[in-house]
Each structure stands twice: as structure tokens, then as C-alpha cells.
């Protein structure tokens, strides 16, 4: 029953589209986006049961509709052209300063965080006298109490 309803829906969509480029003329509407979002995966995906996919492929105007939208709005995904496969060495040359830029952005972020910590008082630097290890300097109030 579900397959029969889906086949009927595809047939009705095909009849409504007819020979037009989009459902409402020469420019896409929100209905075109919705229909395309359902048809494209059905047309392009590998499915375990291909009955519905075969029916869609038999409706040539819907196939052309999907192919047209794919090539118009997603040229690297749906069109016949594919992005050229670059060897790994050439891909590095696309941005030769990538590592430098990443390092500098991390460094700037670290300096900004430390600057904020110092300026807000979260971290402060206090100079103390050089005394033996493990001994804490005695504050002025503690000296008066000992006397």
C-alpha cells in the first residue's frame, strides 16, 4: 500500500510538472525546494529495494528536474563535472601559510586570555623575597603578633 501511494504521488508530481522547468514556471519556489529535497535522495541514493527508484527513473521529466537543479545549484555534486582530484602535495600548496596562521591564531588567543586574566585580577604577580625553599614570607601583621 505504501509503495502504491508513493508511486501515485510521483506520477501526480510528474503530471503537474509537465514540461516546465519548475512547478510554477521558470523560477524555483519553495515547493520546488521541498519536492527536490525528497526526489534527489530517492534518485541518487543506493537503496536496498529499488522499486520506487525505478519508477522515478521512468518519469523522465522528474529526472530532468532533479538533474537540472543539481547542476544549477550544486554543480560539483550533481553535474557531470567533478572537482579535480589533487595530489596531496598540491593540496598543501593551496594555503602555504596554513600552519603559521593556525599557530599565530592560537598565540593571539593565548595572549588575549592571559591579558584578560591579569587585567581582571584573576592572576596577579607578586614579588617575594628570596628565602629558603618551603618557607613562606611572613606578613607584617604576623610579625607584630609574634613580638
TrEMBL record:
Keyword Ligase: no
Keyword match Metal-binding: no
Transmembrane stretches, start-end: 103-125
Database matches in PANTHER family: METAXIN RELATED, METAXIN-1
Keyword field: Membrane, Transmembrane, Transmembrane helix
GO biological process assignments: mitochondrion organization
Superkingdom, taxonomy of origin: Eukaryota
Protein name: MTX1 protein
GO cellular component: SAM complex
InterPro entries linked: Glutathione-S-Trfase_C_sf, Metaxin_GST, Mito_Protein_Transport_Metaxin
Domain Metaxin glutathione S-transferase, chain residue ranges per copy: 6-69
Chain spans, region Disordered: 128-147
Pfam families, A to Z: GST_C_6
